[in-house]
Design goal:
Number of strands: 8
Shape: elongated
Largest sheet: 4 strands, antiparallel
Strand content: 25-35%
CATH architecture: 3-Layer(bab) Sandwich
Number of helices: 1
Length: 149
């Protein structure tokens, strides 16, 4: 008596595994996109709070802020009342190309010294490029309260 598997049995198992992989891959890719969005949202929220604390402490005796440049897929933590690309204190943070970030009404979020307030309410929206239904929102009210949704 010969023990082992026949070629037909092996091909059947391989075909079944390929079918399972084909069914599961869209779910995995969607999960991966959501994870990338969550991670980017978390990092941006942390950086907003970091810059706000710098502004409230009047570090370097100035206001601080964040400038979002979605076309280059990065945002910049800046020093001063407004963004200047040549400032030595700028810190650039890149984010994945699979995420799109926009801020309304402006991409320049300047946080006032001592209070951490902004000139007007700002809404930052992050969206997955390949999964448009997945999005995250951060709202900053005029007093500087940062709220993730």
């Amino acid at each position: 008596m010969v023990r082992g598997y026949s070629y037909i049995q092996m091909l059947l198992v391989i075909a079944l595994l390929a079918l399972l992989a084909a069914v599961a891959s869209p779910y995995y890719l969607a999960w991966q996109q959501r994870q990338s969005l969550r991670s980017t949202s978390s990092i941006l929220l942390s950086d907003l709070r970091y810059v706000q604390s710098k502004a409230m402490q009047r570090e370097q005796d100035a206001s601080w802020g964040i400038y979002i440049d979605d076309s280059s897929k990065h945002y910049t933590l800046f020093h001063g009342a407004s963004y200047s690309a040549s400032d030595a204190y700028n810190q650039t943070v890149s984010y994945p190309a699979s995420v799109s970030i926009s801020a309304s009404p402006t991409n320049e979020i300047a946080l006032a010294g001592l209070t951490g307030a902004v000139a007007s309410e700002i809404t930052i929206t992050m969206t997955s490029v390949s999964l448009p239904t997945a999005s995250k929102t951060i709202h900053i009210n005029a007093e500087g309260l940062v709220t993730p949704y």
